[in-house]
Each structure stands twice: as C-alpha cells, then as structure tokens.
Fold this protein.
Amino acid sequence: MANPIQPALDGTVPEQTKTRQRAEDYETWLAQVWPKYIDAAATGRTFTCFEIADEHKLPEPPDSAHHWGRLMTLLQDEGYIRKAGWACSSRPTVNHSGVRTWRGTRAARKEAS
C-alpha cells in the first residue's frame, strides 16, 4: 500500500526523494532499527531518537506517532539507554519542538566492548 503524501498548506507537495520507507509491520521494523540504537547507546554519546533514524536512514514504523516512543521505552527498560535531558528536534516536520535526549548506559558501553 502506497503512503499518501500530504500537501503543505501552501499547496506544495514534499519531494518524494526525501521520504523514508515505511515498514510493513512492527516486528520487522523493530528488528531493523534496534541494532542501530544499541550501537548508538554503546558510544555513550547523547542523542535524540530522530538523529539516529536520520543518520542511518532508518525506515518509518507502521505507526510513527507511537512506535518511536515505544522503541525508546523498550531500550530504556532493557537498560541500554537513560534519559539525558531535552533538546530542540532536528526533525523537519516538528518545528524544533522539544524532545527527549538519551545517553547510553555504562552497561551498554560495557556490553559493546
């Protein structure tokens, strides 16, 4: 099923080359993105969810409004990341709204070595 493209208020349509693929189901999507976030956690750097997705051109989940947050909660629950603070999002569609930043835990760095 093709993803519908929402025109902007001024009538322009976003370029198709800038849109990322959308995964068919949650489990497949999770299997694709999980390793990239584990790798990011292992570096110990502070990051936003979108920064990692954009850096690796990760696919969109089936339900973008909920699945990204669920991913970060799972990573935190598994002990890979912890809350680090807040930043302005670099995601183009959210007008620099505030988002949570994350940092890999000592356990994530230790597991990677």
The two ends are 42 Å apart (CA to CA). The CA atoms of residues 1 and 82 lie 36 Å apart. The chain is about 40% helix and 15% strand. The helical segments are 26-43, 49-55, 64-77, 106-112.
